[in-house]
Amino acid sequence: MRERGPVDDLEKLDTRLRQAAEGARQKVPGGLNHDRPPGSALGLALRVGVELVSALAVGLAIGWLLDAWLGTRPWLMLVFILLGGAAGILNVYRLARGFGYAVGYRQDKPTGPQRPGDQGPGIEG
Known about the structure:
Blueprint: H1 6-27, H2 41-70, H3 75-97
Helix pairs in contact: 2-3
């Protein structure tokens, strides 16, 4: 009897995940494409607004609660408002660069040869 190795199990899992994702795309009309921006400018504008306001609100709430707990009014609230604003701007930047539409924030970089005759990284001829 042949034992299955971890590579076989990973390949089977990958196949099942791809089949499940394809089945989910077929059930939704038009399919889901998280790699492209929303269909309307209004949707994008609302998302930008919500990103900025929610980040500021979270920063304000954390700062206010810490100030009330530690008795340092208004310093921590000011610090966390600035941090919340910075987080909101970072989220809008990611959205504008297209990172907000895909799962995770990193884009895949090609690792192999790009053109015939090119060598992949770490290979010296």
